[in-house]
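Weekly structure sync, notes
Attendees: PL (lead), two postdocs, one rotation student
Agenda item 3: pending single-chain targets
PL asked that the sequence for the first pending target be pasted directly into the notes so everyone works from the same version. It is reproduced below exactly as submitted, 276 residues in total.
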Amino acid sequence: MPNISPDGWPAQSPKLMERFANPGRFIRVTQWLLPLLTIAGFITLAVGLVWALIFAPADWQQGETVRIMYIHVPMAILASTGYFLLAICGASSLVWRHPIANIAAREIGPIGATVTALCLITGSLWGKPMWGTWWVWDARLTSVLLLFFLYIGHIALIRGFDDAQRGYRAASILALAGVVDLPIIKFSVNWWNTLHQPDSITLTHAPAMSLSMLLPLAVCMVGFFLGFAALVTGQVRAALLEIKWRRTRFSDRYEAFFDEVNAPAITAQAVTREEG
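Predicted structure, written out during the meeting:
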């Protein structure tokens, strides 16, 4: 029978990687971290959306349709960020056998796919009045659509095997292979002649928008990132608590089973001692 620690997980040796991969420690830390992320994300996002949708000025050329930007841009950044996290989880699983990495990847996938779908939907809504069409096979749009399919493939692989470890391994390989799409998404507007406008915010140039629009966009981005972090943290925590409950329940049943099996022998030994 495995050595079970007091918090319901198999006891681990104090190696550096295992120290930061302890599921019990993750559950304890997120007990106070998750409410903070949730409250901070809700307040920040509420402030950002009210500021962006009501008080921020309309664009001189795009008019009120520019307000889609305050949702579309954070979704686009989160879509790539989420997949990059999948790749980190995949590497941690394949190289270090990180016990939380596979669970985190399993929970990040659906959230990342939803974010990418919202990015595509808001992009189409924004593109219709600007380009006159809902969709074009533009390099930026096509590479983001490919990212959505990578998320769907990851979700299918990680849940598609009876042997969970095979699913984790296959999904990790796909996550690492799909990382090549991220620089294509980022630099597609520079590498090819596309309908999609160049990035308005870069690290090497001044923002191509006024401060009255940039500030509410930044607040919305922080709010969406906090919300994304809260969702992922909550899902991973719930999955770990379910595993802990199953292991603890199995451990109790395992002990009860052997107590029942060994009871006749223990009783016979006691009777023999009394007769002796």
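Discussion points:
- The mean pLDDT is 82.
- The radius of gyration is 25 Å.
Action: rotation student to compare against the earlier draft before next sync.
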